[in-house]
Amino acid sequence: MIDQTIFKDVNEIHARLLDHRPVLQGHINHFVQEFEDKRQNREPERLEKVLDNVKEMNEKLIPESLKAMQVFLPDVSAKVKVATEMCRKIEDGEILENKQLLQNRASRKERWDEFLKKQYHNCDNKQLLQNRASRKERWDEFLKKQYHNCDEIDTDFNQQVERLKTHYEDLEDKLGYSTMASA
């Protein structure tokens, strides 16, 4: 009998310490109850709203939109055709204008080329060679002047650098003597 009471007590202690099923079951039931209370059956309500919206669309909106499309779609289609035809005409006009511009440029270029040929044929080759030689001489003189000017500027710059260098060296020397004399 003592064995039975000890065995019962050990089983009870074992159940309380190691068997967590009742505690977990209580927590799970509490969580589910809280979750359902917070939701307050929102999902069925939302599904009912969606069903109502779908019914309304099937009964009202779709037939109305089909009627409106039957009434207005031919008019819209005709307007789109007119607009595309106008766009095509504008594009054709621009293509013609571009062709005319290109032809005008080509004819101007041909006339210019003819003018230049006449000018060169009217001048004799000796004159052209003399003009080229004189331009070459003037160019060479110009380059010589530029090189000479660059050399003058470089020498002037170097002289200024030397003057400044000597000036600052003199100032440092004077500063050095004045600090030595006062010490």
Q: What is the distance, rounded to the nearest whole angstrom, between the alpha carbons of the first and last residues?
A: 116 Å
- Give the tally of β-strands: 0
Mean pLDDT over all positions: 84
Poorly predicted tracts of residues: none
Q: Rough shape?
A: flat
Radius of gyration: 53 Å
Strand content: under 5%
Q: Approximately how much helix is present in the residues?
A: over 70%
Largest sheet: none
Structural class by secondary-structure content? mainly alpha
Number of helices: 4
Strand-and-helix sequence, N→C? HHHH
General description of the model:
This protein is mostly helical and 183 residues long. The protein has helices spanning 2-18, 21-39, 42-122, 125-182. The mean pLDDT is 84.
Please describe the topology of this protein:
Layout: H1 2-18, H2 21-39, H3 42-122, H4 125-182
Organism: Mytilus edulis (Blue mussel)
GO cellular component, one term: BLOC-1 complex
InterPro entries: Bloc1s5
List keywords for this structure.
183 residues, mainly alpha, 4 helices, Biogenesis of lysosome-related organelles complex 1 subunit 5
